[in-house]
Amino acid sequence: MRYLVLFLLFFVHMATYAGDFFPSEYKQFAFKEGDLLVSKRSDGKFSVNKILKVDRFDFKKGSAINIQGRSFVATEDDYLLIVSAAYGDAEFNSFEEARAAAKTGKWTVKLSHAPNRTPGAAEGQVLVGHAPVTEPELVGYKRWRAAFEKGEAGVF
After folding, report:
1. Is the dihedral angle over the CA atoms 114, 118, 124, 130 positive or is it negative?
2. Could you tell me if 61 and 76 are in contact, meaning their C-beta atoms sit under 8 angstroms apart?
3. Per the confidence metrics, is the pTM higher than 0.70?
4. pLDDT of residue 154
């Protein structure tokens, strides 16, 4: 029994261990899959965005990731969260108009999938609702995920 407890303690520690290669803000995210968010664009218009997936990717020392076109090689074992979202067109004149569109599901998707690091994916976003993620919404995500796992795609 004592060995089982020690094993479990060791396993839990290893599963939750976070290295220092990625910044701590890359390891936390306030929203979840299916959350509907509203953001204000630089032109003053508002858009609705939807979180499709929040994935934890573990990186072993020596493995690489492409972030904004630059390759980074992990100097220690670590992880980060990658947020996949659908971004809406900046089609609303007010926050209230965008929130109402999110609740009724009447908003235009401009970019069906974008993989992002957690700080950028949360910036300027306000939670306004939730809707289940559907299989058709995951088509772009699944293509990106297959390419990412082969080292052929990166994140923003």
Report:
1. positive
2. yes
3. yes
4. 73
